[in-house]
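Try this one yourself first.
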């Protein structure tokens, strides 16, 4: 693993060990790796069903998400925020839209000294419970909210807003409403980070969003990161035939104008 600071390394290892213990207590490794294959094909081939919550339907897919994709999202997001100028400056409130198991916001918060609070929002009840467990594992103070990203009441300004691997699950009109909100918040000083896969199904809306973000003073990046995968992630990767030799992703980032106090 390549997260600087032994404390973060320790917390990351403990988080992975806890995930493994919990999710492999009720399902066998074979069941989880089979579910991972189904989940990965749902991400790649059946995007249209995701806005109806298909990705997290069933215990196997949920375990596969928590044990496989969430650690990858953690590692990628930690790498991204370390490399984006201004992303690791102290922040008071981190809002995570579509938090899932909380991996990406936990990753960002662990790279910043003194994040006081995470506000984690997801519509899926399992995700909310799982996210709370993740934040506990990292000793992060967080409140969770079961709500839709479009209609959720966000904390007042002076925040960093993250949406990682979530917006691609939304319908176009709903996603565009979120973009309007995020750009408006960034213009008023909030930091904004969107992370998505480099896959073709994202490209359909990405370039237009990139143009809007760049006009608002932000930037777009693509990432390709070689990391040593945690043992359970590498084992699932092999068993499901996915071959993640490197983690890839793309991001849209606006640093915001004012700093929080
Ligand atoms: C692929 S997961 C990503 C989770 C997490 N952000 C990460 O980086 O690992 C997508 C999450 O977005 C949530 N989601 C998708 N559309 C949503 C919406 N309209 N409102 C709230 N949550 C949503 C799903 O329930 C799921 O937990």
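Now uncover the answer:
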């Amino acid at each position: 693993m390549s997260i600087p600071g032994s404390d973060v390394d320790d917390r990351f290892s403990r988080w992975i060990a806890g995930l493994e213990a919990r999710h492999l207590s009720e399902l066998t490794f074979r069941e989880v790796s089979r579910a991972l294959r189904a989940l990965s094909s749902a991400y790649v081939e059946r995007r249209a069903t995701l806005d109806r919550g298909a990705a997290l339907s069933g215990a196997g897919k949920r375990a596969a998400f928590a044990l496989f994709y969430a650690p990858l999202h953690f590692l990628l997001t930690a790498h991204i925020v370390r490399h984006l100028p201004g992303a690791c400056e102290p922040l008071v409130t981190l809002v995570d839209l579509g938090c899932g198991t909380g991996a990406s916001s936990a990753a960002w918060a662990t790279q910043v000294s003194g994040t006081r609070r995470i506000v984690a929002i997801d519509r899926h009840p399992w995700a909310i419970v799982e996210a709370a467990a993740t934040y506990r594992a990292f000793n992060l103070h967080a409140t969770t909210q079961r709500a839709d990203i479009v209609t959720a009441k966000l904390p007042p300004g002076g925040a960093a807003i993250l949406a990682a691997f979530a917006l691609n699950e939304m319908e176009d009109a709903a996603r565009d409403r979120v973009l309007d909100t995020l750009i408006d918040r960034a213009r008023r000083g909030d930091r904004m980070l969107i992370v998505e896969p480099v896959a073709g199904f994202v490209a359909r809306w990405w370039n237009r969003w990139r143009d809007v973000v760049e006009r608002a003073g932000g930037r777009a990046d693509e990432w390709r990161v070689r990391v040593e995968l945690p043992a359970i992630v590498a084992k699932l990767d092999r068993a499901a035939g996915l071959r993640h030799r490197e983690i890839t992703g793309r991001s849209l980032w606006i640093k915001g104008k004012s700093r929080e106090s």
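Discussion: The chain has a mean pLDDT of 90. The first helix runs from residue 6 to 26.
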